[in-house]
Specification:
Blueprint: H1 2-16, H2 20-45, H3 51-73
């Protein structure tokens, strides 16, 4: 099931390159993921954590995943092993 999900994601990301509406959904989903990650990281970082540092960490993590998936989707690399997400 995970392999099928990744392959569907690849297809959607390839389609998003030419579809502004689909691309907007992709960016919105990533923004929502970042927003949901902030409180998780804040709890893990503890009460003395700088809120800006927490937000930057959430943004970096979310964008790293986004960029990795987009880069992989632009290739024909497999779903496992070298060059996989």
């Amino acid at each position: 099931e995970a392999v099928r999900a990744l392959l569907r994601t690849r297809g959607l990301l390839r389609a998003a390159a030419d579809d502004p509406a689909l691309r907007a959904v992709w960016y919105r989903v990533n923004q929502e993921s970042e927003e949901r990650l902030v409180p998780v990281l804040a709890r893990l970082a503890g009460p003395d954590a700088d809120p800006l540092d927490v937000r930057l960490a959430a943004a970096a993590a979310t964008d790293a995943v986004r960029i990795a998936l987009e880069t992989w989707a632009a290739t024909d690399a497999g779903t496992e092993g070298p060059a996989s997400p």
